[in-house]
Each structure stands twice: as structure tokens, then as C-alpha cells.
Amino acid sequence: MALKTKVISLCLLATLLVTMVTAVWPAFPSQSGIGNAPLGASMGSMMSAGRTGRSSGRGRASKGEVSDSCTCLHELQMVEARGRDNSDRLDKLQEEVSSMYGAISTLKSALNAVQGGGKSGNRIAPQAYNIAFSARVGYNRPYLGETEVVVFDELVINNGDVYDPYSGKFTSPVPGLYEFQTTILSGFNSTIETMMVMNGNEVSRMFSGGFNTRGSGSNAVLLNMDQGDEVWVSVFYGNGDYVHGQWSTFSGHLVQAYTV
Ligand SMILES: *[C@@H]1O[C@H](CO)[C@@H](O)[C@H](O)[C@H]1NC(C)=O
């Protein structure tokens, strides 16, 4: 429909031009022969009628009118051919676009599958975070009570300011998969049992001790954490009371953030 409107507009413009030219140039050369294209023919007769109405007042000869129509017909046929060509190209483009949509949809599914690991419903975020801490106990802790927090008061690194060396607690700044490691060295000829805790729930245990010596115990844990979740190390229920300074460490880092 748009093409037809364009063709009609072009045709009217051409008619106007021809009328103007023939008005100032009475000796406009005549041509013979009319094109056979159906659209061209019908449009040509339309134009011819329109032009006749306008030019009849000036007393133009009917032979000149036929020649004008022929010129316009040729233009029309060219426009029509070009329109058909453009239409074909548009169809081809539409096919390509829809095939690209298909490919994008496939890629999206594959990406979701890759990102779907970890906590159910959570997807891996594309942002790169620098979240990591490492701390150690600065001095011996001989009188730790049951479930008392072991405070690793000497910071080694604290990227993202995620670990509090006063409370001994790590707080998750973004939802994600986190890894923590702890090593606890016992006092001489004694034992201590400790645990890693998330939000008050034990997530791993460590035994440290030795007969006539010291002994270290360590463990690591991977945790899916929400923002604001906390992890710390504490004495296990009722066992041991001595953590050796300098040799005991607590570290953690974000493995991969999740989107919220
Ligand atoms: C270690 O502890 C055991 C058991 O309490 C004790 O018999 C031993 O004498 C201690 N060793 C030293 C060097 O104190």
C-alpha cells in the first residue's frame, strides 16, 4: 500500500513537471508507444486523464498528452521494479533477523544453564568484586569459654572491609558463593575443638591438640550466603580453652557473586 501511494505521488509530481515543461515549451517532442505493464498502464491512463483536464484549458494537442504518459510510464515501471526488489530484500532481512532471534534465544538458554549453579534460583552476576580477608590471632588465648568467638585480631588483608577484627565476624556484602579457611594451633600438651559458624549454625569443625606437643587442626567450607549473613569461628561446645597466637588464622573470600 505504501509503495502504491509513493507511486501515485511520484506520478502526480511527474505530471505536474510535464505540464509545466509543455506550458513553456510548445514544441515538446512527441513519442509513440505505450508500456504494457498493468500497473503502469492503469496509472498512465489515470495521469493522462488528470493532465488532460489541466492542460485542456491551454489547448494542448492530444498527441502531446500520449507522449507525456509514455515518459511517466517508463518512470513508473522503474519505480515498480525497484519496489519489488526492495520488497524481496526486506523479506530476506526479516528471515535473517528471525533466525538471529532464534540463535539469541538458544544462547540465552545456554547461559542460564551455565549460571544456574549454586543456590537454587540464584544466578551468577557478571560484576567482578574484590572481597577477601585474612586475619590471624595476635596473641595466645588461654581462657576461652564454651562457644566463645575466636577473634582473629591481626588483619593481613581486608578487601572490601568485610571482616571485623574486633568482633571476629565476617559479614557478606553481596549474595554469593564464599569460601572460608581456618587453622587453629592448640596450646602445648592440650587440645581445643573449634567450629566455623554461619549465623549461629555450625558449618565445620576443627580439632587441634597433641600429647606433649602442640597440634593444629584446619578446615575449609564453601557457603552460599545472602547479603548480611555472618561467619565466624568459635570454641566448640565445652572443649578446650586455648588458641595459639600467630599460628592460628581465619581467611575467606567471595568465589562468585549471585544476582539478586
Ligand atoms: C601432658 O599431659 C599429660 C596428661 O595430662 C601429662 O601426663 C603430661 O605430663 C603432660 N606433659 C607435659 C610435658 O607437661
UniProtKB/TrEMBL annotation:
InterPro entries: C1q_dom, Collagen/C1q_domain, Tumour_necrosis_fac-like_dom. Pfam families: C1q. One of its GO terms (cellular component) is extracellular region. Transmembrane segments: none annotated. Residues 1-23 form the signal peptide. Gene3D superfamilies: 2.60.120.40. The keyword Transport does not apply. Residues 126-260 form the C1q domain. This is C1q domain-containing protein. It comes from Batillaria attramentaria.
